[in-house]
Each structure stands twice: as C-alpha cells, then as structure tokens.
Amino acid sequence: MTTPPRLVQVRHRVLKQNDLVARGLRSRFREAGVYVVSLVSGPGSGKTAFLERVLTTLRVRDGLRVAALVGDLATDNDARRLARSRAPVRQITTGTVCHLDAAMVSAALDGWRLEELDYLFIENVGNLVCPSTFDLGEDLRLVLFSVTEGEDKPLKYPTIFHTADEAIITKTDLAPAVEFDAEAAHRGVESVRPGMAIFEVSAKTGEGLDRWLDALSARRSGALG
Amino acid sequence: MHELSIALAILDAASEEAARLDGARVLAIHLRFGPLSGVVEEALRSAFELAREGTPFGETSLVFEAVPLVAFCPSCDAERPVASIRHLRCAECGGPASHVVRGRELEVVALEVEP
C-alpha cells in the first residue's frame, strides 16, 4: 500500500541567512557609531565618480573619517580610482556573482576598526536587478542613474527603486547635450516610488552635491542621535 | 543571475525543513513570491534546475505561488491592491500608496513529501 504525498506547511524566508548576517552588521555599525550608505546602479552610471567626490569632500572639507568597500566582478579599477580620495578603500571581487551579499560585506570588514569611522560607503556591483534582493545592513541605500541612460530607468527597473531610500540623478552637466527630460525622470521615480527623495548631482562640476551632503548629514544625525 | 544564489538558498531552506521530517522524500517545494521580491519566475526555474543537480533534491520540483501587490493607501485609510509595480497607486482611488504591505515575500511555504 502506498501513502499519498502529503503537504507539510513550513514558513521559511529564503534569504533568512542573508538577513541574519545583515541584522548582525546593522547592530555592529550602530554600536561603532558609523553610518553606512550603499550605492546601487547600472554599469556606467557614475557611481565611482560620485563616490570619489563624496569621499574627498567629506574627508578634506569636513574632516570626517570615511572609508569605502567596492564590489566588482573582476577588476580592482574602481578601488584604485577611489583610493585617489585617500580614504581607506577595500575591494570585494565577486567573480561571477552579480551582487554583494551581507556575508561578503562582513568578510571584507574583517580587521577594520569601525569605531574609527564616521561614514562607510558600499559600492555594489553595477547591476540594476540583482542587488535589490540582498540587505547589506546599510542605513541608507542610494539608487543612481545618469542623464545619459535615459529618463525611463525607474520604470524599467522598479524593484531596485523600491529597495532604495533615495534616488540620485548623475552626470547632470551632460543634461543639455543629451536633452535630458528631468521632469520625465522625476515622474518615473514618483510613479514607482511615490514620495522618494530625488537629488541631481554632477560629480564633475560638484553641482548639487552640497544639497545631498546636507541631507546625508541630517540622516546620519537622525540615525545616530 | 542572482536567481542562482536564490535557488541555492531555497535548497538550504528545504534541507533544513526536510531534516525534521525523518527521511521523507521531497517531491516539491512550494515557494511564495511577490512582484517586488526581485525574482523572475522563469529565471529562477532554470536556476533551480541547475542548482538541484547532485543534491538530494535532484527530482524535486518548484511550485510558485504568486502574492499580489498590496499597499496601504492613506486616502482610503486601508490596505488596497496596487495597479502595478510601476505605478504605486491605489487601485480604488488612484492616490499614491508607497507603503507596501505585501509583495516583497520570498518564502518556502510548504514541502510536498512522501511517505
């Protein structure tokens, strides 16, 4: 006699393991008093240029202690570019993996004295799809897209906009050359994520950066008290 | 292709749950997923077929249960279905509804086993 198959109800979040590591990171960051910002975007949106300018400004102008982790599939080009800011930078080479996860961040932080930092930035692998699913324990997630990529990025990749807290439109110095329709871009963000804060920044000229840095500083004070 | 990472995590979840079922054979894993989970069903199906090779789940299938997108609508003061992930607007009144209540899920919810 054969017993028919039975259905056993369970409740198991698929990313439980990642979420547990991310939660551990978040409490470690909070205890150390470091505010953690991650950046996601498609390849070529200007994450590295933006971050280089941010790191330099915070370190030199504001005298803050900053560091960065940078995820990349194969090369350490981005890490070398960021090192020009003279902030400590560590590379995470993911090989064929298209996103960072909490365990990679945790491993990369091995030996770092987080309590000596005010800000830690995590640059994810250039990809607008895969990173959306993985919590890295960050306080703030930025999604970047450049004026040269077109206004419809939010409508094409809504999920990543849902997991991010703020949107940054980059390379605004090129906006006239590519006839960028800022209003359409804002409408797209507003459609997929009503109320999301949007900043427009040129890493080349520095335009718009102060507005974002002021908001960042307010966010940090709010989180760390 | 983050679906491969997810497929491996599904197998880990299934192993952990199956370990409590004294040697029962897992015929199917039921997965509940929302439109904002970041998972594409077709991609995950292929990734799962690769990931299960050489594991005790070589013959196990994956059953998808889609969760609808639901958000809190401040104008209606209620949870409402949402038009689409591209238009986070209340399906009833059309107002913005950015607080997603359901639709991010990615969970193993049942195992079909024998005996």
Secondary-structure element series of chain B: HEHEEEEEE
Total number of domains of chain B: 1
CATH level-1 class of chain A: Alpha Beta
Strand count, sense and barrel status of the largest sheet of chain A are: 7 strands, parallel
Give the N-to-C terminal Cα separation of chain A: 67 Å
Instruction: Briefly note the CATH topology name of chain A.
Output: Rossmann fold
Q: What is the CATH topology assignment of chain B? A: hypothetical protein PF0899 fold
Strand order of the largest sheet of chain A: 4-3-5-2-6-7-8
Strand content of chain B: 35-45%
Mean pLDDT of chain B: 93
Multimeric status of the protein: heterodimer
Strand pairing plus helix content of chain A: what structural class?
Answer: alpha/beta
Largest interface: A-B, 40 and 39 residues
Write the layout of secondary structure elements.
The complex is a heterodimer of chains A (225) and B (115).
Chain A: E1 6-13, H1 16-32, E2 35-41, H2 47-61, E3 66-72, H3 77-83, E4 89-93, H4 102-108, E5 119-123, E6 140-146, H5 153-156, H6 158-163, E7 166-170, H7 182-192, E8 197-200, H8 209-224
Parallel strand pairs in A: 2-5, 2-6, 3-4, 3-5, 6-7, 7-8
Helix pairs in contact in A: 2-3
Chain B: H1 3-18, E1 25-33, H2 41-52, E2 61-66, E3 70-73, E4 78-84, E5 87-90, E6 99-102, E7 106-114
Parallel strand pairs in B: 1-2
Antiparallel strand pairs in B: 1-7, 3-4, 3-6, 4-5
Helix pairs in contact in B: 1-2
GO molecular function (chain A): GTP binding; GTPase activity; nickel cation binding; zinc ion binding
Organism (chain A): Tautonia plasticadhaerens
Protein name (chain A): Hydrogenase isoenzymes nickel incorporation protein HypB
Explain what you see:
The complex is a heterodimer of chains A (225) and B (115). Chain A has 225 residues and is of the alpha/beta class. Chain A has a single domain (6-224), classed as 3-Layer(aba) Sandwich (Rossmann fold), CATH 3.40.50. Helices cover 37% and strands 21% of the residues of chain A. Chain A contains 8 helices and 8 strands. In chain A, strands 4-3-5-2-6-7-8 form a 7-stranded parallel sheet, with helices on both faces. In chain A, helix 2 runs parallel beside helix 3 (77-83). Chain B is of the alpha+beta class and 115 residues long. Chain B has a single domain (2-114), classed as hypothetical protein PF0899 fold. In chain B, 24% of the residues lie in helices and 37% in strands. Chain B is built from 2 helices and 7 strands, in the order H-E-H-E-E-E-E-E-E. In chain B, the strands form 2 sheets. Chain B has a 4-stranded antiparallel sheet, with no helix packed on it. Chain B has a 3-stranded mixed sheet with strand order 2-1-7, covered by helices on one side. In chain B, helix 1 packs across helix 2. The radius of gyration of chain B is 17 Å and the shape is elongated. Chain B starts with a helix and ends with a strand. The A-B interface holds A 2-18, 97-99, 101, 129-134, 155, 158-160, 162-163, 190-196 and B 1-2, 5-6, 9-10, 12-13, 16-17, 21, 24, 27, 30-31, 36-39, 85-89, 96-98, 100, 104, 106-115.
